[in-house]
Amino acid sequence: MMSISPVVAVEKIGAPVLGFTERWGASVIFLYHAICAIFRPPFRFYLFLVQMLQIGTHSTLVVALIGLFTGAVMAVQGEYTLSKFGATAFTGSAVALSLIRELGPVLTALMVVGRAGSAITAEIGIMRITEQIDALRSMAVDPIKYLMAPRILAGIVAMPLLCCIFIVVGIFGGYVVGVGLLGLSAGTFVSQMVTAVDTFDVVSGVVKAVVFGFIFGWVSCYKGFTCGYGAMGVNRATTGSVVTSSVAVLVVDYFLTSILTRVFLQ
Amino acid sequence: MISVEGVHKSFGRQIVLDGVSLQVQPHEILAVVGPSGVGKSVLLKLIMGILQPDRGCITIKGESICEACSEGRRNKIRACCGVLFQSAALFDSLTVFDNIAFPLREEKHLPRDEVNQRVLDMLEALSLKKYAFRYPEQLSMGIRKRVGMARALVREPEIFLFDEPNTGLDPMDGQEVYELINDCRKKWKFAGLVISHEIPEVFQVSDRVAMLWNGKVVEEGPPAQLIKSTNPIVQQFLKGKTDGPIRIQ
Prior knowledge:
The complex is a heterodimer.
Chain A lengths: L5 H34 L5 H39 L7 H39 L2 H7 L4 H39 L4 H11 L2 H27 L4 H36 L1
Helix pairs in contact in A: 1-5, 2-3, 2-5, 3-5, 3-6, 3-7, 3-8, 5-7, 7-8
Chain B lengths: L1 E10 L2 E11 L4 E5 L6 H9 L6 E6 L2 E2 L6 H8 L2 E4 L11 H11 L5 H14 L15 H13 L5 E5 L7 H18 L2 E6 L11 E6 L2 E6 L1 H6 L3 H8 L10
Parallel strand pairs in B: 3-8, 3-9, 6-7, 7-8
Antiparallel strand pairs in B: 1-2, 1-4, 4-5, 9-10
């Protein structure tokens, strides 16, 4: 039987722990520099606008499409479930509340992560391996300020706007299916929805979207900036970016929901 | 202009540079040669402040880039340097014109008219006018290198760093790049450091040559001195022999 010395055992446990701590530390330092860069002149507003176009405008159609069908499905599922309790009148409230509080921010974030997050990581990763980031440094241009700060800021601004589009289109989809196809009363659908939704629901949805936008920008840029060399490096960075962002969105969603509910309802 | 004093650099357990010392004087071009993988490009990145040495000191015009505590400080020290990267490192989303204009807009924040004039002058000087509105992907590697030089020269650098200037070029394009370096040197009077393994081609642009091997400078002097060197490492490298102290790994 093979015996492992205590030193080797400690090394085997310690190496991944140190590696994990180092990666976390590096990503937090990166974030600190990126946030400082957002507030430090010169301000390149056009770079922010370009990223709003890439992250926001170019994601609008897919977000609206997903929102439309999510709202429609919610109406069908809501009507079916509530009919068991004789409460189909509350279908409108169920659709609106679930979209505003939960599905809107989370599904929008997952869609944007899949569409724009992977693109950002691949773009920055390729810039890194083709020495374009080194070229920026050689021209005394800070790559974190020039490349990362506009993307992170655009993520924070675009995500809540896309979330609002998702919610509005989703409610419209729910209305079309609930009233048009399932025969629910239009007046009841809308009035129950207006009664059930309050300011806290909207604020919590928007806060979540802002936080998810921040996570999306941070992870996508960091993964691209630390991308390994070659096609495999870009492949790993892109996959890692989408997986990490998606998992982070879902984990943070749970904690945010708990915190926001406690804070607002107390 | 550039002083490298006792620089050590390792990646994990692999020692890349082991006490390298070099000097580049004003208006002088020093070529650093050596087989692939000896740390020539690492040395260039250390000089640019992209990597930090484990030990030793690198100064550019008397200011230590290793001790610069922030990216802003390093940027100030780098401001006198131009770099031609191995792959030219042009921004692929920008045209040739915009690539050359980039440092004037983003680093020097010059007014639009002045930027346009200086870029047009540079396009003219380096015979790039007909490529002005093409994207890097539409250019041959030789033209990309020329654009890379134009982008660096438009900043009027006092020091020019060349990383394998003729990598990926056919012999004619490679020769053209060396001729371009000589022409530009006469016109802009910069000091330079050329990283290369192209022997003897690189001798035509260099005043002195330093050969790196096993993390150390094994020979340094004018090209003629290097050619006459009795050091078996230098002789093996110059003659391109496979048998000798240099082992291909």
